[in-house]
Amino acid sequence: MSTERDSETTFDEDSQPNDEVVPYSDDETEDELDDQGSTVEPEQNRINREAEENREPFRKECTWQVKANDRKYHEQPHFMNTKFFCIKESKYANNAIKTYKYNAFTFIPMNLFEQFKRAANLYFLILLILQAIPQISTLAWYTTLVPLLLVLGVTAIKDLVDDVARHKMDKEINNRTCEVIKDGRFKVAKWKDIQVGDVIRLKKNDFVPADILLLSSSEPNSLCYVETAELDGETNLKFKMSLEITDQYLQREDTLATFDGFIECEEPNNRLDKFTGTLFWRNTSFPLDADKILLRGCVIRNTDFCHGLVIFAGADTKIMKNSGKTRFKRTKIDYLMNYMVYTIFVVLTLLSAGLAIGHAYWEAQVGNYSWYLYDGEDDTPSYRGFLNFWGYIIVLNTMVPISLYVSVEVIRLGQSHFINWDLQMYYAEKDTPAKARTTTLNEQLGQIHYIFSDKTGTLTQNIMTFKKCCINGQIYGDHRDASQHNHNKIEQVDFSWNTYADGKLAFYDHYLIEQIQSGKEPEVRQFFFLLAVCHTVMVDRTDGQLNYQAASPDEGALVNAARNFGFAFLARTQNTITISELGTERTYNVLAILDFNSDRKRMSIIVRTPEGNIKLYCKGADTVIYERLHRMNPTKQETQDALDIFANETLRTLCLCYKEIEEKQFAEWNKKFMAASVASTNRDEALDKVYEEIEKDLILLGATAIEDKLQDGVPETISKLAKADIKIWVLTGDKKETAENIGFACELLTEDTTICYGEDINSLLHARMENQRNRGGVYAKFAPPVQEPFFPPGGNRALIITGSWLNEILLEKKTKRSKILKLKFPRTEEERRMRTQSKRRLEAKKEQRQKNFVGLACECSTVICCHKAIVVDLVKRYKKAITLAIGDGANDVNMIKTAHIGVGISGQEGMQAVMSSDYSFAQFRYLQRLLLVHGWWSYIRMCKFLRYFFYKNFAFTLVHFWYSFFNGYSAQTAYEDWFITLYNVLYSSLPVLLMGLLDQDVSDKLSLRFPGLYIVGQRDLLFNYKRFFVSLLHGVLTSMILFFIPLGAYLQTVGQDGEAPSDYQSFAVTIASALVITVNFQIGLDTSYWTFVNAFSIFGSIALYFGIMFDIHSAGIHVLFPSTFQFTGTASNALRQPYIWLTIILTVAVCLLPVVAIRFLSMTIWPSESDKIQKHRKRLKAEEQWQRRQQVFCRGVSSRRSAYAFSHQRGYADLISSGRSIRKKRSPLDAIVADGTAEYRRTGDS
């Protein structure tokens, strides 16, 4: 028992997660997840252990070898893999991308193979073979061949069109060009001809063709700016920096041509933010990481040219690996339809077996004793019954509708085009239309239960705007004139006095401008100077204009704000920064940059002023800044109050502070700083520890408040979707305050919402697990599972869970510890058995915990949690609900592919999410129209189509069944062969197709106005097994009426001319005519939205039937094909009898009048929501359109404050303040100033 307990606690021991940790990528690395418990062991032991752990995997994982400028090296035998028998190919992929499926030779065989994998197509192929056997078939072979060829042909044409488009796209990408070193010179080559080991040159605005190691560039220190919108949806620029050795020696063409570096690195994988490798060159090894790699899909910006070495090409690149395997998605109706076809097949088999037994009995009782029925065959009745079984399988095969699948495909294709053509989903600003990238999921858009949305670039514009600030306890940003008087309406501040203002900042507080220009309060100027100097923004000039490149949009917004208020950041070198202070240029020496990371939540810069003073300027989250303030800060409370006000307005806040440093203090600290900067192990931890020593006793200046602008219409869209009972989960990597902010801004959270955080959820789930464990005794297996709610009924609740808490809740943080445990190999069989049992218990516990989490989360109206595809998968797995995921970057691809439906946001963001999505458009607000209009219409159209399709086929086919009782169960057909062939192809196909394409219960405006209509689709009310059997019953009753009324009319009949039109052929014509009129009028009753096209198709189909029938029954065609057209003169002879027309009219009336009566009673007594809206649609159209409710945010002090977001990764400080950029030797200074009070007084006096 003790061993079991030890093994369990070894896995489960964990410190509490840090709610502020923000993982950069979707899935945190094991190292990040285990950092929280690392302080338990001594520091040196930890360093030694990590060194041992890291060294061994490096040798095992770095098996990818690249030799520069040596293509033959990669063609060596040990790099070749066997592909097929003796055919071998290199493990290094070429750079050509292939997304198409077919070529000119493989299209027909592969397409036919894929189509015959469908059970229905294969079934009809087998039927066609059976029909070629004369002893079995009573039907001509063409009755099956013609519809089958039509189905295969339409599907093949659709597949061909799709594949041609993929061919064109692949060709366009593969034929792009760049410069590659060949024969010692740079020569232009196509992307598809690039290979691993090639050295290439890229120029400004070029796409990166492969994953390459940056060797050098035109920028200082071989810096290279890249835009990663294709990868992560972020439009702000990132920087990459080459190794110092390659920057120094590989600038010229001749040196690049002779470069013979050798790289060992990790195998191709999909981790966009990770890379591990080593460059061996000049008898030295150099470590490589992700900062030195340019990934395929990035765009070179602000860099004239750069050189790189191809490491991964084509399918091995990270962007292609990240795309993952395309999951084939099918709709819920697809699965239901397949089960219903299987049900029909079972019914068909049972009917055929019953009729075959009937025929065997009839042969034994009647056939063998009727000399006039002798056919020359002496088969036994049982054998004749066996043959008749297959005969009835053929005769009744139309119960399984061959044209069903192709008709569904045609309808879906049309609905997809309607989405593409919808001008109300067209974004004119970026010339981006909505695009249905698949044609198989349209009706599923009308059944969504959960939406999983990314935040940045999806809900927001990813545009930050400076709104307000608090300086020295005074709030600025309201509508005030220069005399400090508030006004409701006041003009924007005019920044024309500032030559560096960009004219884009909308600010209305004229009093702040007065304070800056007058200089009465030095803190105001120092505030904006801090914003201009404390950052890692890069700048360049284009046509005399300043262009800032920031590591995050919020940092760019603050530097731009300082620029507009008169403190413009002009230039920087490795160790200086130049600021224009109200028109006066001043240059400061940058002594150190203490960069941001997600643990520090702040950044600082240490500068030497032109006067020789050393100052530290710091900005960061209020939670960390307030801990480091000097005890004597008189504006501390006023700033705290301002932060609360900003938080209530859902603005993102940031605190600013500074301190002066003595020379001696800085000199001592700088020694520690330089030592930590070159540490070979745990460099980040060492730097953070040194940073802590200097960032204390700070003087508070104030706080900023910036707005993360939502896209237009986001709150209205979310509000309408919520009224449609769609639950929206926002998946973001932000900290909880930022997540809460975005929730209130989007109106996902309201004043009535009770918010639960990670710690609350963890305790609830822990308590539930304990209860389940206590109940799980000996008799647990006999007791039914109890589904108890986690929360009391009533109330509006929301969950906000950060990445670390989500890992804790889902028990996803144990991987590295499990690896450590595996090092202790079990010595005995008992230990191995106990280890296996422990592992099984942990897996069961994890599964139960995840199931409980999903149950708890689904009780809440809103969930805001970490961005992980696992969340989508859990809801799909445990709730069996239809999910939709929407995102804009490559980090959303897994989520988009995991959900039932994936939507990509296109436009200014990257295209990787769009390429992996099922639908795409430019703005989040179009989602409401996609679901509430196109989704709802597609759902009701498909449901009506399927119900009617099954009905008309049963009504048509089961006439044979009733006829069997009067023909000795002989498998004789009740219709002419050509009528059977053309019934589903011509006589009843067009009206149902047009209903599936055009029908709508209410208009698009009313669909948006009444989102409650959407709930019908979520509950599967329009198409389910109940509706299916009702349609079947309707078809059965219709077939009975179609057969027995004409049968009764034909029993004792004499025509006007004394002839009795009671022959078999006239009877077949009568039934067929009544059937065509009935099923076409029935679809008229089912149609809600009438157009000329619908009416023409219904009456045109009836006219077409009569026209073709008279042609087929003509003498002329019989003379040409006597064996194929045998009903010569039947139509003209039968239909000239008024008695026949009265029979047809009576049959149609008896079929349709009960339907009309039932529909009338239903709409009168039990009207649906749609019926009510249709009844009052004229009045509703006249009313004013529904408006978004106005909401006032008036929450008090809350945890809703969102600190400055910074970048998810470190900024540009590594470039600016690394050993390579700070080369100036610094003079020694005294120790750290102990008397902070004196420092504060000195500052106050100034």
If you had to describe this structure to a student in words, what would you say it looks like?
- With 1246 residues, the chain is an alpha+beta fold.
- 43% of the residues are buried.
- Among the domains are: 148 residues, Calcium-transporting ATPase, cytoplasmic transduction domain A, CATH 2.70.150; 202 residues, HAD superfamily/HAD-like (Rossmann fold, 3-Layer(aba) Sandwich); 235 residues, Calcium-transporting ATPase, cytoplasmic domain N, CATH 3.40.1110.
- The protein has 44 helices and 36 strands.
- Helix 6 packs parallel to helix 13, helix 11 runs parallel beside helix 30 and helix 23 runs parallel beside helix 24.
- The strands form seven sheets. Strands 18, 19, 22, 23, 24, 25, 26, 27, 28 and 36 form a ten-stranded mixed beta sheet that branches.
- Component of a P4-ATPase flippase complex which consists of a catalytic alpha subunit ATP8B1 and an accessory beta subunit TMEM30A. The flippase ATP8B1:TMEM30A complex can form an intermediate phosphoenzyme in vitro. Also interacts with beta subunit TMEM30B.
- GO terms for molecular function: aminophospholipid flippase activity; ATP binding; ATP hydrolysis activity; cardiolipin binding; magnesium ion binding; phosphatidylcholine flippase activity; phosphatidylcholine floppase activity; phosphatidylserine floppase activity.
- Belongs to the cation transport ATPase (P-type) (TC 3.A.3) family. Type IV subfamily.
- Its main location: membrane.
- Its cofactor is Mg(2+).
